[in-house]
Design a protein that fits this description.
Elements: H1 2-13, E1 36-42, E2 45-50, E3 62-66, E4 82-88, E5 94-99, E6 102-103, E7 106-107, E8 111-114, E9 125-127, E10 131-137, E11 140-145, E12 149-152, E13 155-158, E14 162-166, E15 171-172, E16 179-190, E17 193-202, E18 205-213, E19 219-220, E20 228-229, E21 238-245, E22 248-254, E23 257-258, E24 261-262, E25 266-270, E26 287-293, E27 296-301, E28 305-306, E29 309-310, E30 314-318, E31 323-324, E32 336-342, E33 345-350, E34 354-355, E35 358-359, E36 363-364
């Protein structure tokens, strides 16, 4: 019976969720007891991480499904805390980051590497606080979050909010993002440039977005300095989510001006010119998640109205014509925190218990 359920799950994951009609919800045998924060397909395996402890079994906060057969969930190392990010390590395994202290019964503090055979890699680099995102470029893992120190054996390295690790040698590099104070919530890669979002200080200037050119040794991109504020104050602005699509960097959070032009909690920048590509969308509260796919931007968060019309917590925006996709109205009954796409299949997760008039706890696809 369980194999049949997972066969159904895998088949539906391959069906396109995103349509040009009203929102529909798949009847999946996939019911985590907490929120899903991230997903990654590595080869034929789909990995899912979050703050759940169970998906049909006592999985911990990391679960895996084979997309090539109908087997039950894969046997993965048990993680005792929250997973915020999963990325391939380039050798068939993957890197995970979040807020945890044990992986597969071994002490790992907020960062771990998993081998291709699902065993815990001996790499044991520890972070003083939460890891929110890992991006990989040319064999280096760039790690961002809320930490101040990185520990290797008996050595400690001051690396406020960001650092990089050589994946092959397992060593912490000398790279510094030159950030003081604050917190980094998200990071995305476009070519060789890494964008970060959060709130932080660079050269004593309060910022919520910054960019680093990784092919130039990770230097701060001096030509990328958008001014994002709330009522003219940079100290009250925050960016919680980033995504890239159609030559634009989309960012969401809590703010209402970019380069002294009015906007409302979600906006974008042209990646070629670093100038605002305004969306003309007004939201009445904070954006927490962004996902771009096939010219549609999916926006989730705490808001309940879009351009003054009731459209609670999740909506789609057609980026090719710069307009809200009005016929798609899933209306979850509580906040959407995270979202993503697999094989043109949208998933969302948050504190909702209903979406598109269907009962769904924490997760829907």
């Amino acid at each position: 019976m369980k194999n049949n359920l997972y066969k159904l799950l895998l088949l539906t994951l391959l069906l396109p969720f995103i349509s040009l009609g009203q929102a529909t919800v798949q009847n999946l045998p996939f019911s985590p007891n907490g929120t899903v924060h991230c997903q990654k397909q590595v080869g034929s395996t789909l990995y899912i991480g979050g703050d759940f402890t169970s998906i049909d079994a006592n999985t911990g906060s990391l679960a895996g499904l084979s997309l090539s057969n109908s087997a039950s969930p894969l046997q993965l190392p048990y993680v005792n805390g929250t997973i915020n990010t999963i990325v391939p390590d380039g050798t068939g395994g993957y890197l995970i980051g979040g807020s945890f202290s044990s992986v597969g019964g071994q002490y790992r503090q907020n960062f771990a590497r998993i081998n291709a055979n699902m065993t815990v890699h001996p790499l044991n680099i520890r972070f003083s606080s939460t890891v929110n995102k890992i991006v990989v470029f040319n064999g280096m893992a760039y790690v961002v979050g809320g930490f101040s120190y990185v520990y290797v054996n008996n050595l400690s390295y001051y690396r406020n909010l960001a650092t990089s690790i050589n994946i092959n040698s397992g060593t912490v590099s000398n790279w510094s993002a030159n950030i003081n104070n604050g917190y980094i919530y998200d990071a995305v890669l476009s070519g060789s440039r890494m964008y970060i979002g959060g709130y932080f200080e660079i050269n004593r200037e309060r910022r919520v977005l910054a960019a680093y050119d990784l092919n130039l040794g990770g230097t701060l991109a001096s030509n990328f300095r958008p001014s994002i504020t709330t009522n003219g104050s940079p100290s009250s602005a925050y960016v919680y989510a980033l995504t890239i699509g159609g030559g634009r960097l989309f960012f969401g959070g809590y703010f209402n001006r970019i380069n002294n032009i009015s906007c409302s909690n979600v906006s974008s920048l042209n990646l070629s010119t670093n100038t605002p590509a305004l969306m003309n969308v007004s939201l009445n509260s904070t954006v927490m998640s962004l996902t771009w796919n096939n010219n549609l931007l999916y926006v989730g968060g705490y808001f309940t109205t879009v351009n003054g019309i009731g459209r609670p917590r999740l909506f789609a925006f057609n980026t090719s014509i710069n307009s809200v996709f009005n016929s798609w109205t899933p209306a979850p009954n509580s906040v959407v925190l995270k979202s993503g796409v697999i094989n043109n299949n949208l998933w969302v997760s948050g504190y909702f218990t209903s979406i598109s008039n269907n009962t769904r706890n924490y997760f829907a696809a």
